[in-house]
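It is worth pausing here to work through a concrete case rather than discussing structure prediction in the abstract. The textbook approach is simple: state the sequence, then state the predicted structure, then interpret. We follow exactly that order.
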Amino acid sequence: MLVLRIDFLNGVYHAADPTAHRQSEWPPHPDRLFQALVAAAYGSGISPEPLRALEGAAPELVFAAAEAAVSGSLYPPATWLERPTGEPWKRTNVIKHDPVRVGISDPVYLIWRDVPDTLQPALAAIAAGVSHLGRAKTPVVVALADEVPELPHRLLPSPTGESLLRVPQAGRLAELDAAFAAGRRAGIADMVGYTDAVDRVAPSPWGELLALRPHRLLDSRRAAQWAGALRAAVLSLAGDAASPLLHGHGGDHAAWAVIPDVGHAHARGHVLGLGLWLPRAIDADARADCLLPLLQVQQVRVGHLAVDLSVVAARQQVPQGLARATWSRPARTWASVTPVVLDRHPKRGESVEDLVADSLELAGYPRPLDVAVGQRSIFRGVAAAHEFTPRGHGRWTHVALTFARRVAGPMLVGKERHFSMGLLRPADDRGVPA
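Step two, the predicted structure:
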């Protein structure tokens, strides 16, 4: 067994989630530590070969909470970002956010239970060469540990876990070597689900968000129509070999995502991205079957309106609304940003609130303690429920929910949850009664 202890010497951790550059990362993802160990090995003139024992194995993580602080901004040369076209940049610099966690007083422990003890001396020598984690402003000491104390959080790998962490997959060392030789950044490591054995959070059935950016402002009140148009475009490209996750016939299937710009002072309610919510427990092959045809989509059409779409370039800044964490953060209170379409009409003596609670259980979530329904959402930028146009007939309403314990997102509820209706967002900081 191998236990690595990370001590944050200044009590801060400067590191951004590579898929959401405004979001601070906590706890440190295993792949970030793996990359630091690879760099330390080469910097110390030590062979990195022992690190292959960490590939393809998701470690346990034991840690305490760290507070997200207001981040500063950096202005590196514009060439730090990939140019979206062949045209030269029209300005000399671009903004780059510097998210940070503060108040770190306890070490973070990563535990690999299947690493042979014979590798410990070599791995200890490599770990001793790690000087920082994330940005250079985060000095750390990394060392082997014999014991792991009780701390507030213990993350364990789980196919249905509510937290997704980057873990070095098999062949990661070779991938990092090839990227370094080519003078480019390596790709993002595989995501692995984790669940907290101490702070029990009800998991979501949904995992990764794959999104494309529209080239013009779209009205989120037609979310269901844009979701249907994206589905048609993807299936036309996938052809007869389309994955069941895409067409929805037989077993689990992905949900077509239309992500609105809501919940902040300047929110206008337009569409930030169109894409897919993938079921959590799918393998890499199933993910690729969804991702490849999605990335080929260049245009979608609703009626006479055609809209071009594009992939977000690597390291390009994206709105916070397209970060998965915006929609997945565990919370006890949740509220809708697109109305929930009821699974059926209420029977005599049956309330709409009960039907919404039934829909939540049907979708794989705990039954809420309290359900409030109405025409208005608590989030700024969201239109009234009657202004939306679902794909079919029925009844739809905005909702606010309270649960007995924290529930992780993404949260998609109701009859048209696979077409971007019934999308909810964490609301613990919005004053919803708990």
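Step three, interpretation. The chain has a mean pLDDT of 88. The chain is about 20% helix and 30% strand.
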